[in-house]
Amino acid sequence: MKIVLLNVSGRQSSDGSRLISALLKRAGHHVKCVFLSRTQPLDYEPDELEPLGEIINEAELVMIAVHSSYAIRAVQVTEFVHKKFPGIKVIWGGPHCISVPELGLRYADGICFSEGDQVIVDFVNKFEACKNYFNTPNMAFNVNGSHIVNNVLQPFDNLDSLPYYDYNLDDHFLLDQGLFQMTKGLLKERLADYPYPVPTLFFLTSRGCPHRCSYCNNSRYITLFGHNKMRFYSIDRVIEELDYTLGYLNFIEVVVFGDDDFFMRSEKQLEYFAKKYKKIVGLPFGIAVSANTYRKEKVEILLDYGLKVIQLGVQSGSQRILDEVYNRKIKKSKTRDVVQQIASYRKMHDLDIILDFIIDNPYETRDDIIQTYKFILDLPLHVRINLFFLAFFPGTPIYNRALKDGIIKPFNEKEFRFYTRSHVKYQRNYETFLVLLVRFLRHHRRLRRYRAKYSLLALGSYPVRCIASIFPESFYSFMSKSVQ
Ligand code: B12
Predict the structure, then answer these.
(1) Taking Cα atoms as reference points, which of 375, 311, 314, 381 lies closest to residue 347?
(2) I need a surface site. Which of 200, 394, 431, 434 has the fewest CB within 10 A?
(3) Rounded to two decimals, what is the model's pTM?
(4) Residue 18 beta carbon below 6 angstroms from any ligand 1 atom
(5) How high is the mean pLDDT of the chain?
(6) Which distant-in-sequence residues (6+ apart) come within 8 Å of 1 by Cβ?
(7) Which mutation among 67, 238, 259 tests ligand 1's pocket best, with the greatest number of atoms within 8 A of CB?
């Protein structure tokens, strides 16, 4: 069957949609993948979508991989297809759809609302053979305005049986001010973005997460299953796939393992991984870990084998926010110790560390925010800081809470704000300005130059904060924008 699979994520995808494509190709279907991978502008003008017609014209089914921040694009494409090609069904899947089928069913004909691995081929086979597909597990359908929501299968755990992520560029296209055949040159350009401006491959070696953070998309799996079970690819399988993919994408300079917590693997496994990785792959790599699973021994195993960056979620400097709002069972003091330990590897091993924080959370008091400020101020200067604006993903506990408390309105694709590239909305105050200021100064290396730490500490002191609070919110809104 001829399928067009679109990915509307702003970054060049390295996510599950490549797996969906690979599964369908392995089953003998013809899949053309189109990436709408630009970050700005978010909207695609109607005439920009027109070239899609050339590809969809030949297709019998359209699928779209949807991330919440880009859901508006999925809506635009779906409306385009329904209008131009009445009769062609549009199926959505991806992080935006997990556990909340009703969201996507406002627009799509069908939704995959859990993992797609076990069901997508079966669905397409039935669809092609004109058999009843409305009972496919993990999927929901819009049939003449009423919704059929099927049962959900237990999380898929035979990860080694999956095909390699589809990076075969022959039938891949880019839609950005025209429709272009994807080439290695284009892909190389688009994969050079984060965390370093060099071509980077994101790769997952496991699924699941040990945490239950109230804001995270993973909590949607907890809604479905009561937990988000850890599942692992074997190390041999990981290295085989990396060897194959990097042989083809021979321009990649860094590999980042996107596993929610790379240290869920045992020391023994990490040792085996490190040796094999160095021998066969050999590129610098990054991982994400949490303060709870961090072990000195584990880092030291990886350091000699190419580990160059560790990403760690701090999220807030306030224990109250971590406990009562984010449901993160991690002690702030522990995170601080772990950060100091990781930072100490900088000199000998050139190890970078990136810390994630969530700001502009309406449940924070100004005292909570100032604790985040002080936490950041105390960090060694080479530590990189990511500040994300709290995004309320539908289906997460924090979304439900904020909706109930009247803080947010029900999800609307047009108004959903980005984690990044956003503006302060809930906390237009002096303390949030200080958090943004300190990140700005660190980023531009001003702290080092002016030895400003002590002045900044004074700016965060109680008397200064009292005086600063006489300025109106509009002032801090303006000031915050000026240091973003
Ligand atoms: C690698 C990664 C990245 C990479 C690459 C992103 C990309 N576009 O490919 C980078 C670092 C660039 C990135 C950035 C961001 N990311 Co990110 N990222 C991930 C991560 C860690 C792994 C993705 C992955 O491979 N998952 C594993 C695969 C197997 O799962 P999957 O993609 O969901 O696919 C399965 C199903 O959804 C389904 N499926 C998927 N697609 C389709 C399509 C169809 C048609 C069907 C039927 C089924 C289907 O089947 C798949 C197999 O079972 C996830 C967390 C996670 N563990 O998933 C976050 C995650 C996807 N990211 C997230 C976010 C919010 C972001 C950012 C917006 C954050 C920011 N900094 O601003 C940015 C924005 C990126 C951009 N501009 O597009 C959220 C998305 C939440 C949401 N509701 O949309 C996640 C889920 C993190 C989280 N836990 O909350 N990210």
Answers:
(1) 381
(2) 394
(3) 0.95
(4) no
(5) 94
(6) 29, 30, 60, 61, 124, 127, 128
(7) 67
